[in-house]
Design brief:
Elements: E1 7-13, E2 22-24, E3 27-30, E4 34-35, H1 48-53, E5 63-67, H2 68-76, E6 90-93, E7 105-108, E8 111-118, H3 124-128, H4 132-136, E9 137-139, E10 145-147, E11 151-157, E12 159-161, E13 167-170
Parallel strand pairs: 5-6
Antiparallel strand pairs: 1-2, 1-6, 3-4, 3-12, 5-11, 7-8, 7-13, 8-11, 9-10
């Protein structure tokens, strides 16, 4: 059996700060800004609580990527979650997003995204499905906080991303640093 290449399963956006994002045929990524037409588009922070704290902060959360394998795990635990429902822009399959180091570059079609860190999910996830937050953020046996709600990134090369596109992974030079919440 051959292992398939990492791929985009689906793409999503929402022009409003809604919890879930809508499935679309393609998204347009603009370098240094994010997903065109999405509420989180911009060079400076767009997340509402971060805007209140300091609207001049750079936007390191331009694109949210989530692995479809998480939805498989959640389904086995009794949750029904579909791509886009947890607010991601790009749903992937076949790439260990959470294990990538900071600065990993993901080439998708003619676009590229540089991974900046882990998504830190909030209480809205429990509003979506009760008990889901404890599945997405928990403490492991060593006392470390484990965040499973995908990764965030910035657009480092403009382009179009569509479902089915292959994802090429380029790791940053050594030393490499693990993802932390952003």
């Amino acid at each position: 059996m051959t292992k398939s290449s990492p791929r985009v399963v689906a793409v999503h956006l929402s022009p409003t700060h809604s919890f879930s994002k809508h499935d679309v045929d393609e998204i347009e990524l603009h370098e240094g800004l994010g997903v065109a037409g999405d509420a989180h588009y911009g060079a400076t922070v767009q997340h509402r609580s971060r805007v209140r704290a300091d609207p001049s902060q750079p936007n390191v959360r331009q694109v949210h990527l989530m692995h479809a394998e998480l939805f498989d795990e959640l389904a086995a635990a009794g949750f029904q979650v579909q791509p886009g429902q947890l607010g991601e822009n790009v749903t992937t399959r076949g790439i260990p997003l959470l294990d990538l180091p900071v600065g990993t570059r993901l080439a998708i079609g003619d676009a590229a995204i540089t991974v900046t860190g882990l998504r830190n999910p909030c209480q809205q996830i429990n509003d979506f499905q009760d008990g889901l937050l404890k599945r997405l953020v928990h403490t492991d046996d060593e006392g470390n906080v484990v965040r499973l709600a995908g990764v965030m990134g910035i657009v480092s090369r403009s382009g179009t991303v569509r479902p089915g596109a292959e994802i090429a992974v380029e790791l940053p030079p050594e030393p490499r640093f693990p993802l932390t919440r952003v």
